[in-house]
Amino acid sequence: MAWILLIFAGLFEIVWATAMKQSHGFSRLWPSIITVIGMIVSFGLLTWAMRTLPLGTAYMIWTGIGAVGAFVIGMLFFGESVSMMRIAAALLIVSGLVLMKLATPS
């Protein structure tokens, strides 16, 4: 259950990061509201997952999902540059997340 909560926490991190970009420095109401709600949900789920998962594992997985997800959203929807070097860096992050999951007792 903790792993599912952690995955959803990471997905909500992507939501709030994307909404923050759309808020234009918190000058637009609805994206700003979505940012704050997304943060609360993301942190809440992360906190819940940390009840049973180790700190380092939970935090690394949470930030990794958010980082890679925001990277993909940036490329797909915000016209951020696509290069083999950036894609390789994202794949390295994903590899680290998989290794961390495999190295953590259930």
TrEMBL record:
<keyword id="KW-0472">Membrane</keyword>
<dbReference type="InterPro" id="IPR037185">
    <property type="entry name" value="EmrE-like"/>
</dbReference>
<dbReference type="InterPro" id="IPR045324">
    <property type="entry name" value="Small_multidrug_res"/>
</dbReference>
<keyword id="KW-1133">Transmembrane helix</keyword>
<comment type="similarity">
    <text>Belongs to the drug/metabolite transporter (DMT) superfamily. Small multidrug resistance (SMR) (TC 2.A.7.1) family. Gdx/SugE subfamily.</text>
</comment>
<dbReference type="InterPro" id="IPR000390">
    <property type="entry name" value="Small_drug/metabolite_transptr"/>
</dbReference>
<feature type="transmembrane region" description="Helical">
    <location>
        <begin position="58"/>
        <end position="78"/>
    </location>
</feature>
<dbReference type="Pfam" id="PF00893">
    <property type="entry name" value="Multi_Drug_Res"/>
</dbReference>
<feature type="transmembrane region" description="Helical">
    <location>
        <begin position="27"/>
        <end position="46"/>
    </location>
</feature>
<feature type="transmembrane region" description="Helical">
    <location>
        <begin position="84"/>
        <end position="103"/>
    </location>
</feature>
<keyword id="KW-1003">Cell membrane</keyword>
<keyword id="KW-0812">Transmembrane</keyword>
<keyword id="KW-0813">Transport</keyword>
<protein>
    <recommendedName>
        <fullName>Guanidinium exporter</fullName>
    </recommendedName>
</protein>
